[in-house]
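Below sits the subject:

***
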Amino acid sequence: MRPDPDLVLLGARLLDPGVGDLLPHTSLAVAGGRIVAFGDDRDMRALAGPRTRTIDLKGSVVTPGLVDGHLHPVHGAELTDGLDLSGCADLDDVRAALAGAKRDLAPGAWLRAWGLDPNVFGDRPIEAAALAPVLDDVPALLQLFDAHSTLASPRALELAGVDGPRTFDQAAEIVCDAQGRPTGLLLEDAACELVERAAPQATRDEQRARLARALYAMAAAGLTGGHAMDANGDSLALYADLDATGELPLRLRVAPWCQPGADAETVRHLIELQGNRGTLWRVAGVKLFMDGTVDNGTAWLERPDCHGESTHAFWPDPAAYTHVIGELHRAGVQTATHAIGDAAVRHVLDSVEKARGDAPAGVRHRVEHIETVPDDTVRRFAELGVVASMQPTHCCDFTRADHTDNWSRRLGEERAGRAWRCRDLWDAGARVVLGSDWPIAPYPPLAVMAGARHRRPSRDLSLPPHGPEQALTGLEALRAMTVNAAYAAGEERESGALAVGFRADLSVFAENPAEVPATELADVPVRLTVVDGRVTHQEDHLGA
């Protein structure tokens, strides 16, 4: 006899994005973390036993579990522990927020903040002097929204012993004035870490608690999984710890980093890490960087930006990157490369093409971000089978339709006019996967899908969209966080659809997310979230 199901969901509208319509059922049953049956409410009630948890969804819409295609859970939980500056519209707002936080600081404590938008500086340089005298006498680290640059106060620089320029093995810079004195702006990890190391560090218990809070908040927003791009430091140990105690509410596919300078031993270690796993997490793939960001002048562009910057690759020797891609490809390891500028994206595609020519293998490589690319690059994604992993909310909230924002001004009209080409990539046959890049942008998946459709600033949806011709439809956006996310992970035979035998990773909403108007989608209530057959979030009114 078949054992009683663990969970039965009744009174549902079942939406399979692959089919593109509602299924002819109102209920489903789950056992052992898998969907085991569909039917009407009467059928499923008959299956339920004394230990079955039964929930009446009262007409809510069930979809395959939404998966964020690119997020940084551990780094994000650490980063967002400080003052949130993302709502500040100008320097006066920033100064006021910092002054308020400073009043609450204990003597000698560091002031940490995140989400600082470079647009608040207008035409002024991004430097600590712009925030004087508020920060002059306290050690402070203000992370810019791109998480690739930090503004350090004079006191923080002093405590870290940073008093001039340095040379790094990767693209990074301590920005200095004409006299060689640091301005406070630190570009890329190698420079930021010099000051970060001087600040007080969180304990392991604090890290664990922050991560758990962040992940449960994601589950409450409707996420069932994520492609986590942070396996450095204690990340894997933290995931394993939460998983072992039943406190991991998301299914995580984790990609460790490979930085410039990686030798053969480093690459072998990355290959050996593949397949390490727990119940709800596993190492799968490797994350690399081909450039930085447009906003701080560290992207890799085919032509310099308006300041003459963004002309270099993150790997000082791009050929070394190509070699690493080839080694990982031969080992059957998927790569996910951060590539924002047109030159960076082109080089990644060239490297994948070379790897495929040297050693044919069915590895689904990925490019992350893809913020501006020309036509001839768009078509190559489908030709090479490369997944396009994109975050359109960055376009919504960090650029403007009139191109007066920092990102657009740096690129100029031509390149700013080809921003986040989701529609063109989709129509060209590429597999487009959507994500948030949290903590760079908010993680609620309904907002991510909404942004892919309306492309408007989330703070004011009455403003015009940036590149409306690049919008996705409601169903396409849903597929990009279900069907395509499963494909990108090589899991399309067990995830991304509502089917018997598939994982019981489910997201449940008050309304159909494929049909709700784009500007209303972010506000649709999340009724229930289920991961591996276990309820990780439930609205009170649904009952037991």
